[in-house]
Design a protein that fits this description.
Layout: E1 2-5, E2 12-15, E3 21-25, H1 28-34, E4 39-45, E5 50-52, E6 56-61, E7 67-72, E8 79-84, E9 90-94, E10 108-110, E11 126-127
Parallel strand pairs: 3-10, 10-11
Antiparallel strand pairs: 1-2, 2-5, 3-4, 4-9, 6-7, 7-8, 8-9
Bound molecules: zinc ion (2 copies).
Length: 133
């Protein structure tokens, strides 16, 4: 069991088990949304998430026409989990919101073509220049 929390602690998400995938993304939207060089998140079954606290959602429609929805704390603004139109059973939880420095490294970096020049990932991370729909 792991708990992901926002900065102020108002919003938390409990998840059981290990993520089915761990991903990072260097697309411009993830850079803006995180204020950092990339987003980093683990994928879980949506039904396995136990969400406590208030959250608001920001829905963004990508070039593919599918939306992604970032759920954030209305008090501190941290995005704790996200949902995807094309993966209705799945959710991703922001890896940085867990207190777990042994959380798995990303298996894939999406939009590697847009990453910051200095960014080096482990050899085990596959670099994808774009993102599959
Ligand atoms: Zn908060
Ligand atoms: Zn992205």
């Amino acid at each position: 069991m792991r708990t992901a929390r926002c900065v102020c602690g108002q919003l938390s998400v409990d998840v059981e088990g290990d993520p089915s995938g761990v991903y990072a993304c260097s697309c411009k939207k993830c850079q803006r949304g995180s204020g950092s060089a990339f987003s980093y998140a683990g994928q879980f079954k949506k039904a396995a998430l136990k969400v406590s606290g208030e959250h608001k959602a920001y829905r963004d429609t990508g070039e593919s026409g599918n939306w992604t929805e970032g759920h954030f704390c209305p008090a501190c603004g941290a995005t704790v989990f996200s949902l995807f139109q094309n993966m209705p059973e799945e959710a991703i939880v922001s890896a940085g919101c867990f207190e777990d420095s042994s959380f798995a490294p990303p298996q894939i970096l999406f939009w590697a073509s847009r990453r910051h020049e200095w960014l080096k990932l482990p050899d085990s991370t596959q670099l994808l220049d774009t993102q599959p729909d």
